[in-house]
Design a protein that fits this description.
Chain lengths: 271, 524
């Protein structure tokens, strides 16, 4: 139980640390093209090799982590920030008109394929990391809204909620004090899942050219660029792929561990 | 030669010892009642016979069932034995049945698993078995689903499944605990009849001595994983057995000073619920849960409200607490209305509190006990803060016999009985006039319940509290209340001094309830 938290936290810290470090120092300048050294396999000078413009892949990954992590975090924050209050409001007024309006609105967003929304947004506002964030974030809203509404509905039938109503507390206050804390473990797990999906979605959007625009590197774009050269330069696809895999794995482990750690019923021995 | 013989059974899960030297015997046609408080190991004993133990459990000793050495049998052989020679009935009939299968199919399934019968034959026999448990196919169609049946009917289906193959031994683990008293009496009668008809042995597990005393030929009392004593009810002599008997019919000492001024007055109250509309354009119907109810509670009085599930007693409690608006009538506390326009009246609500039945669901698991106990302060316009708040929490906890230090703990660290005390502390903290006890002691073990009743009596004397005691348990109501209301189908059918109502019930429904209630035979 504790092991998964620590391993997950370590991996996540490593990735975040590399992203932060890239602001101060990277092994090689990623804007300097070095055509003489293009598509080199890993070596002492370039630990993870170079790409088809001779840029250092390790440096690209470090800078790219900023984009990937920022996009995924902000997208989860948007999704939770709008989705959870909407879901709680719908549950607090179950069966009322507010419930219907909120949930049918969510159905509408859910019915749109996420990529279509992203293409729509980029078509209107232009391609770029910020627009990718908004697109992914909007798609996260109904996920969190539905999850929190469903779980909140079952919590609303508990006696402690009734006790809080006897104590004169209103729906808003009960939602904040009793419902939300008991949703925390669900939200943490779903948050890490959406975070990993966000990284993958950003990679997918960059892959089709709708995410971060060159020369800003992102993991998805690196994968996209490498695909035509995968037969003779596998390292170009391998390392960004591994970076995505490791980050997602680390986050999921951390999410699991965090959920257990925050639960007073399971934390007996840990504290 | 006994049908079931358990000799020196020991059971441990990990390092924890659950059963220690348990020896029991059941002969054919005999009913053995196993009594114990929660955690005494009575269910584990039953599960050992079925070899349905949780993972990590290891048992030693000897269990002989109809000549088979159960502990030496392999899992595949046990599968042949379960259902065929031993049947089992559990406490909660709703979760014991598959909600997606018709009751006929579920009974037939038991037959199909064990015997080489065709589907039609199995169905035919299932109908026969359902008829035996008083669910004749003409009246209760076997094509019904569990949710279409009442609790008692569901438990009958469970019994039908258990006895479909005429097993030699039937194990019933708290088979009537989830049922109403009148239904409980019917199910117990049914079990007794089946035992007599089939010459089965019955191992009847219960926490309620009253349920078993009438039925069982022999009674085994268990405590801490040991059998304290075994014998006929009238022969029980062990101090623990006697303590259990005393506790299950405990009458707390109470000065009792019912005044003449009514605290709460309920006048012609009606509460309707809309029922689902019939079709798209149909009008929603109305279900009248509370039907023109009127009564008063005098200051310092303990008023009992008795009725079976679905009679509207909890709805009435919620209306009194101002949680739901009533459609007609008036509820007033000291002359002030509980509902002021469409808003609950805070000035009135702060003078009432409630304790619920389920000790496990009444607290937010993520809050400390202190925070939960202090929650009703929200009703005050100027709630105490800081040290004064802490002091009030400590005082409330000490009032119910807990330590002030407990306020920093989380609720999972407490037992069921302690949790109900904490719930009572939460109700006491704003010093209300009226406390509604909604089945507040029903989920507790008898000895814990007896202590809780003493505590309630003591508090009512010291703090001059008024209780509305809602319960389905007649013996508790008889022992603690001054006056009682009997409720059926949303109406009050009888009302009067508790003792008078119990001695000479006037309404047929009251009579039926009192007759059905399990009682300990009076031993001289």
């Amino acid at each position: 139980m504790k092991a998964s938290l620590w391993i997950g936290a370590l991996i996540s810290a490593l990735v975040t640390g590399a992203a932060l470090l890239s602001f101060l120092w990277v092994p090689h300048d990623i804007e300097a093209l070095d055509i003489a050294n293009k598509i080199k396999p890993p070596s002492g000078a370039h630990l993870l090799g170079t790409d088809h413009f001779g840029r250092d892949i390790l440096s690209m990954l470090m800078v790219g982590a900023r984009t990937s992590i920022a996009v995924a975090i902000v997208a989860v924050v948007i999704g939770m920030g709008f989705g959870v209050p909407l879901g709680l409001a719908a549950a607090a007024r179950q069966g009322g008109w507010m419930d219907e309006v909120i949930m049918r609105g969510n159905d509408l967003i859910f019915a749109f394929p996420s990529l279509l929304i992203a293409i729509m947004i980029t078509a209107v506002f232009g391609a770029g990391a910020v627009n990718a964030i908004i697109a992914i974030g909007i798609f996260n809203i109904p996920v969190f809204a539905r999850l929190s509404r469903g779980a909140a509905l079952s919590l609303w039938t508990r006696d402690y909620v009734l006790a809080a109503r006897v104590a004169g507390k209103g729906r808003l206050r009960i939602s904040a004090e009793h419902i939300l804390p008991n949703l925390a473990n669900l939200l943490i797990v779903q948050g890490t899942i959406q975070f990993s999906l966000g990284i993958l979605a950003e990679a997918a959007l960059s892959y089709v050219g709708l995410g971060a625009q060159p020369p800003v590197p992102s993991w998805g774009r690196m994968l996209a660029d490498s695909q035509t050269m995968i037969s003779f330069a596998p390292h170009m696809a391998l390392f960004p792929g591994l970076a995505i895999l490791l980050t997602v794995l680390g986050l999921n482990l951390m999410g699991d561990g965090l959920r257990d750690w925050l639960d007073p019923r399971l934390a007996r021995d840990a504290r | 030669m006994s049908l079931l013989e358990i000799e020196n059974l020991r059971l441990g899960i990990g390092a924890v010892e659950i059963l220690n030297d348990v020896s029991l015997a059941v002969t054919a046609g005999e009913i053995l009642g196993v009594i114990g408080e929660s955690g005494s190991g009575k269910s584990m004993t039953a599960l050992s016979v079925m070899q349905l133990l949780p993972r990590g459990a290891g048992c030693s000793g000897r269990i002989t069932l109809n000549g088979h050495d159960v502990l030496a049998m392999r899992e595949a052989e046990m599968c042949g034995l379960r259902g065929q020679e031993v049947g089992m009935v559990f406490q909660e009939p709703m979760t014991a049945l598959n909600p997606l299968q018709t009751i006929g199919d579920q009974v037939a399934e038991t037959i199909l698993i064990h015997e080489d019968a065709s589907r039609a034959e199995a169905m035919e026999r299932a109908h026969e078995v359902l008829r035996r448990v008083d669910l004749p196919p003409g009246r209760v169609a076997p094509s019904r689903y569990p949710h279409e049946l009442s609790g008692g009917q569901r438990q009958r289906v469970c019994i039908a499944m258990a006895i479909a193959l005429r097993p030699r031994l039937l194990i019933a683990d708290e088979p009537t605990t989830a049922l109403d008293v009148t239904t409980q009496a019917e199910v117990l009668r049914l079990l007794k009849r089946l035992v007599a008809e089939d010459g089965m042995g019955l191992l009847l597990i219960s926490h309620d001595l009253g349920v078993v005393a009438d039925m069982a030929d022999k009674i085994a009392i268990m405590q801490h994983g040991r059998v304290v004593e075994t014998g006929r009810f009238s022969d029980l002599r062990d101090p623990y057995s006697l303590a259990l008997m005393e506790a299950s019919d405990h009458k707390p000492d109470r000065a009792g000073h019912a005044g003449e001024t009514p605290v709460l007055s309920v006048r012609e109250v009606v509460r309707d619920y809309p029922t689902p509309r019939q079709g798209w354009l149909g009008k929603p119907g109305l279900f009248r849960a509370v039907d023109h109810i009127s009564f008063d509670i005098q200051r310092g009085e303990n008023l009992g409200l008795v009725g079976e599930s679905g009679c509207g007693k909890s709805t009435l409690a919620r209306a009194i607490l101002g949680l739901e608006e009533v459609q007609a009538g008036a509820i007033t506390l000291d002359g002030q209305p509980v509902f002021d326009g469409h808003q609950a009246n805070r000035a009135v609500r702060r003078r009432m509190q409630v304790v619920f039945q389920d000790p496990y669901g009444s607290f937010n698991p993520r809050w400390t006990v202190g925070r939960s106990v202090a929650e009703p302060f929200h009703l005050l316009d100027d709630p105490p803060k800081g040290a004064a708040r802490e002091a009030a929490v400590v005082e409330a906890l000490e009032n119910v016999g807990l330590s002030g230090k407990d306020r920093q703990k989380y609720i999972h660290e407490f037992s069921g009985g302690q949790r109900q005390r904490i719930a009572l502390a939460r109700a006491l903290i704003i010093r209300p006039d009226l406390i509604i006890l909604d089945e507040a002691v029903s989920a507790l073990d008898v000895q814990v319940r007896a202590r809780m009743l003493d505590l309630l009596a003591d508090l009512s004397d010291r703090l001059s509290l008024t209780y509305l005691f809602i319960s389905h348990d007649l013996s508790v109501v008889r022992n603690v209340t001054d006056r009682v209301l009997v409720m059926q189908g949303g109406k009050i059918v009888e009302e009067g001094e508790t003792e008078a109502v119990f001695v000479a019930p006037r309404h047929p429904y009251t009579r039926q309830l009192i007759e059905a209630a399990p009682r300990l035979p009076k031993t001289a």
